[in-house]
């Protein structure tokens, strides 16, 4: 058995609720560890300054763009590897892995170079000035190196998930998390012989916010190195082979064909969210209040906890769907997303209650500046009411992508993000002067609309006929 959670035969023939749960659990733990990397960075920044928190916020949105770009390869890789695993064609599945790693190298270089040169543009678009502007640029340019390494981890994880191996990504992300916490803490507080630029003291020098991003880059490098080492050795019928590295043949075209619409979906999502972030920045500028942006950053980073179970159960469903379609079991594929949603809704309901009643305590933990909580906690309490719709949208969209149906999720993103979120956020936040709650109204409406559209598409079941 290559995957300790669920064997290959169980994925396409075992009791579905059990299979979904066993596949989702390690992904949930993996996503929690991923969340801790960002959470800990925001926590450290909150102990330094509001400017540091703003820099982390900008970097998190830019980093999200990187992950969306990597979806160009990752989505196609998962769909194609899972289809071929379901059909028992392991040699072909391994070919897709190797082509994807080749693509990851060049995609990682492109993302890193783009983010390096675009760092001042991102900072200016979000109304950064003076110290905040300088911190943001340094942070983004250092983090650009980390995105190159992250490309290999993201694509390797996508292939392993398609094969049904959810445990190895969990172990790798656990390793990354430990490295990130240790390295960032050491560099931020200056424990050890690492002097920052411009410091005369050779010992106990503090890097401040620069130490946060340096620790993150170190952790991403270690994660990529471990992923490539495991795939070089071979795991779950997947193994890196130099003879299979290529960029001009049918497997590459199929990966890009399936992933291209997911990448467009991600790009549209990111543009809409960045425009949304620009609206938040404008609220801060209009009111001369420096805490609005920090309140937003803390809120959306904490809400990311809800993404963990939603994405974990969505990934579990997508693996079962891909392999079931490869084996010709369409009814099992259709049931997978519904079972995943039913199981995940329990977690989301608990989180909703925790967010609603713990809003003030959460902000008090994350920020030493009390005014951040005064602005953010009331909006966050309303946000708590939309966690189940968020889970519906994520699980059904991820399930559709697992089947290779990436066109309709892209349409739903266009409608929800560009036609609902951004206009309503501007209306509620800027025109009606509703502050953070007014701007977040656009986010609430967007999530609801996409949840409805994704449900309709999934429940109709026509995605089972999509060819990849």
Regarding quaternary structure, how should these chains be classified?
single chain
Proportion of residues in β-strands: under 5%
What is the structural class?
Answer: mainly alpha
The radius of gyration over CA amounts to 22 Å
Distance between the termini: 27 Å
**How much is the average pLDDT?**
84
- Percent of residues in helices comes to over 70%
* Number of DSSP-assigned strands: 0
Main pleated-sheet profile: none
Instruction: List low-pLDDT spans.
Output: 1-5, 192-204
Q: What is the count of helical runs?
A: 15
Descriptive report:
With about 475 residues, this protein is mostly helical. It is built from 15 helices and no strands. The protein has helices at about 10-15, 15-45, 50-85, 90-125, 130-160, 165-190, 210-235, 250-285, 290-325, 330-355, 360-365, 370-385, 385-400, 405-430, 435-460. Mean pLDDT is about 85; it is low at about 1-5 and about 190-205.
């Amino acid at each position: 058995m290559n995957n300790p959670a669920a064997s290959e035969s169980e994925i396409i023939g075992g009791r579905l609720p059990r299979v979904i749960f066993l596949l989702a659990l390690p992904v949930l733990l993996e996503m929690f560890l991923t969340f801790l990397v960002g959470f800990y960075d925001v926590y450290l920044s909150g102990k330094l300054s509001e400017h540091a928190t703003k820099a982390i916020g900008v970097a998190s949105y830019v980093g999200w763009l990187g992950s969306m770009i990597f979806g160009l390869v990752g989505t196609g890789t998962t769909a194609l590897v899972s289809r071929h695993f379901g059909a028992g064609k392991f040699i072909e599945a391994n070919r897709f892995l190797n082509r994807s790693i080749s693509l990851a190298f060049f995609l990682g270089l492109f993302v890193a170079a783009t983010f390096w040169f675009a760092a001042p543009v991102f900072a200016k678009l979000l109304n950064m000035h003076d110290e905040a502007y300088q911190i943001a640029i340094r942070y983004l340019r250092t983090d650009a190196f980390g995105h190159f390494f992250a490309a290999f981890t993201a694509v390797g994880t996508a292939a392993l998930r398609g094969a049904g191996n959810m445990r190895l990504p969990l172990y790798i992300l656990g390793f990354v998390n430990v490295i990130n916490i240790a390295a960032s803490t050491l560099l931020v507080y200056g424990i050890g012989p690492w002097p920052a630029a411009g410091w005369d003291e050779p010992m106990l020098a503090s890097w401040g916010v620069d130490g946060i991003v340096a620790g993150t880059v170190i952790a991403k490098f270690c994660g990529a190195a471990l992923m490539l080492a495991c795939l070089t050795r071979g795991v779950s019928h997947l193994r890196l082979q130099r003879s299979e590295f290529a960029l001009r043949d049918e497997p590459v075209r199929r990966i890009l064909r399936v992933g291209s619409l997911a990448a467009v979906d991600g790009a549209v999502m990111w543009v809409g969210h960045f425009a949304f972030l620009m609206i938040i920045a404008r609220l801060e500028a209009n009111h001369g209040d420096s805490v609005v942006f920090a309140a937003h950053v803390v809120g959306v980073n904490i809400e990311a906890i809800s993404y963990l179970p939603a994405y974990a159960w969505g990934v579990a469903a997508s693996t079962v769907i891909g392999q079931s379609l490869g084996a010709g079991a369409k009814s099992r594929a259709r049931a997978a997303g519904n079972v995943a949603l039913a199981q995940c809704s329990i977690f989301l309901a608990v989180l909703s209650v925790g967010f609603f009643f713990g809003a003030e305590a959460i902000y008090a933990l994350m920020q030493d500046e009390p005014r951040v909580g005064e602005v953010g906690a009331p909006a966050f309490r309303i946000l708590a009411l939309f966690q189940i719709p968020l889970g519906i949208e994520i699980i059904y969209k991820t399930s559709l992508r697992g089947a290779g149906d990436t066109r309709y999720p892209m349409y739903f993103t266009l409608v929800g993000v560009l036609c609902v979120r951004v206009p309503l956020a501007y209306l509620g936040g800027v025109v009606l002067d509703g502050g953070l709650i007014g701007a977040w109204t656009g986010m609430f409406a967007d999530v609801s609309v996409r949840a409805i559209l994704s449900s309709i598409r999934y429940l109709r079941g026509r995605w089972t006929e999509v060819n990849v």
